[in-house]
Amino acid sequence: MTINKSHQALNDTVIANGYCVGCGACAVPEDSPFKIVMDDYGQYQSSLKDANVFASTHIDYEKLCPFGSGAKNEDEIARQIFSDTCEHNSQVGYYNGVFAGHVDEGEFRKRGSSGGMGTWVLNELLSKGLVDYVVHVKSESAGQDLNSIPFKYQVSETLEETQQGGKSRYYPIELSEALQAIRNNPGRYAVVGLPCFIKSVRLLQAQDSILAERIQYCVGLVCGHLKSAHYAESLAWQMGIPPQELEGIDFRIKDASQPANRYSTYAKGSSGEKVVPTNQLFGADWGAGAFKYKACDFCDDVFAETADVVLGDAWLPEYVQDSYGTNVVVTRNQQIRQLIVNARTEGRLEMDDLGVEKAVQSQDAGLRHRKVSIGYRIYREQIAKAWVPAKRTGPAKTLSPRYEKKRQRLRTELRALSHESFLKAKTRGELSVYLSTMKPVYSRYSRQGRSFVRRVLSFVKRRLKAVVKF
Hints:
By secondary structure, the protein is an alpha+beta fold. Helices cover 39% and strands 18% of the residues.
């Protein structure tokens, strides 16, 4: 009898070393030895059901996990699916179309966080008969209060159901229940997810013929990182709504008087509702990485490189002033690209041909952190003799500019400190515990950022003077 030990190997590497992103892929196979649980830090994590459990011999659990040893990387997965019909870019991945714009029909843009393209693509797949169902994230009580927490993956089959998921959800979610529902209910599905979640779907499809047949399209989201549930609680608590009273949250309320990147946060508690500009709330600086999963610091995929289409915000000067939001869209599937081109011709979409270089520019900061600085983070783990997942980028002892290394160390410190300090704050019932612990470290981090800007400006001035003198 052959004993499958891949589940134990996954547990001893990815899970034991904090690299589980809680996607739920390992809990999907029938009789899986894994379960998905919410930990004390508000993160979904995988856990063995029983220390002595035996796994089914036909599943290699290490190859199901997006951070597992032996799992194909994003290049290998995407090459097999897209290389015949797409060009390749090292930052974006494969592409056959790159656009920026928004939806002109219906309420897609009004009800979405950005240009409305995410929900529009799902609805177009449904209305054209290309899928029967979409699997996406929305409120557990969708239909009553769309912002009610917790958020979870659910299956939708109508426009109204789909639009209930048309918002950014900076909240932990997991896929196992939804993917099990796909296996139990025949049909054609589109699945929406962050890059690591879409990768886990592709890895599952390689070992599960039912999921391979039924999941027709993967719709990816441009990703900075995944947040724990404590992120939502920390924002609401600063707005006067303590964690135990938080009932609902909307992370991106548009303001017609402000640029697209100046949005507000809405929170609802038992005592009332509040709306506060997000930049007034501590911990909302995305680059600092408060409440980030550790796994996200070791992911090198921003543009969901294994998805058929990926959508994000067009953070570009020519679009950011439009308060209603603009999407950047990268297509890899020819059918989805044609849906967009046809709808543009029909006047249903306002969509520019963007070009891959502009798409890269729209996510410049995230790409530098995930594609370049990851090498230094890997190096630091390796010199600490810690296990680290294999990535497309190797370890790098140096970074340019030199002071970027300090910024990376401070980001790592802020990530870890946010989880620990907020848990203590909740235990004591005192928000000040979290704020007083985090603010000194964040101040050091901010000074590094301002120092970087001053150095850049100084360099530019010196170059200009040299040109003028010449």
